[in-house]
Amino acid sequence: MALIRILLVEDFEPFRRIIRSMLQSRTDLTIVAEAVDGVEAVEKASLLKPDLILMDIGLPKRNGISAARQIVVDSPDSKLLFISLEASPEIVKAALAIGAQGYVHKLSVETDLIPAIDAIIAGRQYLSADIAPDSTAKEQPRHEIVFYSDDSVFLEHGARLLRAALESDGAAVVIVTAVHGQGLVQKLESEGVDVNRAIRQGRYTSVDVREFLSQVVVNGVPDLKQVSRVLGDAVKAALKARKTEHSRVAIVGEGSGLLCAEGNFDAAIQIETKGIASCDVQGIDILCAYPQSAFEQTDGEAKYQSICAAHSAVLS
Length: 316
What we know:
CATH superfamily of the largest domain: P-loop containing nucleotide triphosphate hydrolases
CATH topology of the largest domain: Rossmann fold
Largest sheet: 6 strands, parallel
Number of domains: 2
Radius of gyration: 20 Å
Order of helices and strands: EHEHEHEHEHEEHEHHEHEEHEHHEHE
Number of helices: 13
Number of strands: 14
CATH architecture of the largest domain: 3-Layer(aba) Sandwich
């Protein structure tokens, strides 16, 4: 059996470890090189001419779509498989139009990666089941949670979600403390995102989380109508600011996490469930950040499980 030479392009080291582990189960697959940004991906693809390139979209310096356009010119025999959190029909269409043979949603990578590789090697196209470029069905919003004991974990996951939205012509809303807001901007700019330009375009909006909470929580109790109004207005503005109709909007917030840290678990869970449900979050990706220390009390485990249950995925 011929050995399939693979170039892995992914800037997030923990995810690269997952891919490496999965590929190690196959003796006919070998990673000949890795790249952590779009510029490096183009250089290594041109030099190595791999059989298959596993490509993320939200990459620093040069996004995956842009890098792929150059790669298909420099290494036309290399097959392309995108693996991305971005699942909007427009982005999937753009990837396939470039010449990609497959597109795997990162949330489905454990079940879809190997079948996708096998299909592409056999000359067939492969798309994750929840990706349908021509479908008119509504996309399911992502409402994820990250627990952090160190700010760098929060900033890593937050910037990753925001960058994916901004680099695919979408918009971003951050509802965080001033310190975390500055950290996210610095992280994004270090990865090649022009945040000032996005702000001028109305595609990056920053809201002080304490101001947000003062508007939606009265005497420790959430006013769900206010949550719907304040959050809904931010969502509407972000949707309007997108460059294209199908681009995603990313929201990174820590309001509920701060409420939990202050011991107001009931308010946090109401905002996470009833509050967000009262808004039209179609096409919205939400990441909620919680300090791990908020769950160190004696009943912390039960509260932890309840908070997790209110989200579509738990990140660590």
